[in-house]
Write a structure and sequence with these properties.
Largest sheet: 7 strands, mixed
CATH topology: Nitrilase/N-carbamoyl-D-aminoacid amidohydrolase
Order of helices and strands: EHEEEEHEEEEEEEHEHEEEEEEH
CATH architecture: 4-Layer Sandwich
Radius of gyration: 19 Å
Structural class: alpha/beta
Number of strands: 19
Number of helices: 5
Distance between the termini: 73 Å
Helix content: 10-25%
Number of domains: 1
CATH superfamily: Carbon-nitrogen hydrolase
CATH class: Alpha Beta
Shape: globular
Amino acid sequence: MVQKFIAACVQNCATPDVEADIAILAKLIDTAAAKGAELIALPEYCAGLDTKDGMLHPFAVPEGDHPVLPAMAVLAKAHKAWILVGSIGVKSADGRIFNRGYMISPDGAIAARYDKIHMFDVDLGDGHVYRESATIMPGQEAVLSPCIGGTIGLSICYDLRFASLYRTLAKAGAQMLAVPAAFTRITGKAHWHILNRARAIENGAYVIAPCQYGTLAGGSECYGHSLIIDPWGRVLADGGEAENVITAEIDLAEVAKTRARIPSLVHDRPFTIESITPAVAAE
């Protein structure tokens, strides 16, 4: 089993023009492969995205008609690499849209699918209101995917704030955690590095977090700073705030070593919470 390999995060700024985005992604994937990457991770909504009034309007068609998937399958086979399609918009038979990620294996097959569970419905103040659930349906299942050398837990963007998801994935065997995102600039500056490092440290796992950068159609701003983080919480690579490809060596032996040093995954204990009744003041 492969223990060491190069992982890459592709950092792009998606547009409403899905075909133009595919061409940019292909160029960046070629760059990642030239750097020796055998796992290449793309951001959330990596191709075909419009925004308006805080709502997401991804290019969305049924899975079998989506142009991103065959394009990524060709690239995966050409480079003999695993490609994580962070997410694309996928229309279901009943017309609902899912924010769906895919793992493409080196033979071009879909190895895993994941529908984003947690919807980004927030009010950040100063007019920055987001309602992902207005256009997107949430998923219901956590997903472990096969990957080079081991297993990787899939997630998308806002999922990052729900630590129990990553704990569940790690306990189920995930050695790596994928966090493709289009994190907003406001929340990214405040929380992106901290939360990704926390998920790595809590679970003794590598975190691979490709994030879009720049201003999207409609005016929303993404933070960039794609990250690769080791199980001890060290940032191995940071993508900054421009179009970029970052790489780092993944050594899965470090996962076992870190979990042996701090075996918190096996130290979880069941507990209850005491309900406290407020005291009633004497008359």
